[in-house]
Amino acid sequence: MRKWLNALERKLYRYNIPPIMKYIVFAMGGVFALDLLLGMTTAYTSRVNLIGYLTLDIPLVLRGQVWRLVTWLFVPQQNSMLWMLISLYFYYMIGTTLENRWGARRFLIYYVIGAVANIIGAFIAHALTGYGYGVNTFLYYSLFLAFAALYPDMQFMLFFFLPVKAKWLALIDIVYFLIAIITGGANLRMAAIASLVNVALFFGEDLYQLGRRVYFQWQRKRRVAGQRRAVFRRGPVSAGPARLFPMAAQASMAAVIPFGC
User: Fold this and answer.
1) CA-to-CA separations, 228 to 215, 217, 232, 234, in angstroms, rounded
2) Helix, strand, or coil (residue 171)
3) Angle at the Cα of 50 (from 116 to 113), degrees rounded to 5?
4) pTM, full prediction
5) 142: closest CA among 203, 226, 58?
6) Residue 150 CA, distance from chain mean position
7) What does the pLDDT read at residue 257?
8) Which of 91, 97, 104, 255 has the lowest CB atom count within 10 Å?
9) What ranges make up the beta strands (E) of the chain?
10) 117 Cβ partners below 8 Å, 6+ apart?
């Protein structure tokens, strides 16, 4: 799989692809500000729900609103101004860090695979339930999973005062994924599964090798513990009198053997 990703990345070398994460963050912030502005009701204007025109709504896509296949990526996930600013800064930080580590082309491949998988998942949910929609929450969670896989010991200040390493925050993300997959509806379940496709393609081999090492270490520890338990059950090896009292044994032999023999 890694060879296929490398080949795909080499094909993109003919194109001058700039880093895209800053544009994604700016677009999401612009959508939030514009929706806030259009949402104000005055004596002459009524509230306009801009977000409603941008979400990935499969029935509306099938009616010709194909722009939703792209605009859903920029739908903000927060309603609060403060948390929106924090989210934008967080996405910008992890996205640009991944772009610096991988390069703009490889990051684009990771992002596009996750986005396309989410679109396909929304269509599958629509086929199963009659109404499919997509959310970008788990797609951006997958960016943090990639970040945590590359920088597991990077520390973040949780609630602005509690230092937590990225690998532990990634475990919280995985819990969210599992909750959505196990208890969520068809649309939420498909979004969570689809957002793990890019993670599996990029890190599947590494996770497999890590799982093998952990399994073999566990087997080795289990085997050693079993050997120790077996020795404990048998008890210490019984020793004869000559081993327990070597000096007494030598004195008795000297008494029996005649002097000068």
Assistant:
1) 20, 17, 6, 10
2) helix
3) 10
4) 0.79
5) 203
6) 10
7) 47
8) 255
9) 56-57, 133-134, 155-158, 162-165
10) 194, 195, 197, 198
CA distance 206 to 54: 36
Q: Pick from 118, 109, 144, 117: which is nearest to 17 by CA?
A: 109
Tell me whether strands 133-134 and 155-158 are parallel, antiparallel or unpaired. unpaired
Structure confidence at residue 209 (pLDDT): 77
**DSSP symbols for 133-160:** EE-SHHHHHHHHHHHHHH-TT-EEEETT
Q: Which amino acid belongs to residue 80?
A: S
Q: What is the mean pLDDT of the chain?
A: 84
Q: What is the rounded CA–CA span in Å between residue 115 and residue 204? A: 18
Structure tokens at 182: 């196990």
Domain borders along the chain are 2-17+80-211
Residue 173 token pair: 């993300």
Q: What is the dihedral of CA 228, 230, 234, 238, to 10 degrees?
A: -50
Confidence of residue 80 (pLDDT cuts 50, 70, 90): confident
Helices (H) and strands (E) in the chain, counts: 12, 4
What is the C-alpha separation between 146 and 94, in angstroms, rounded? 9
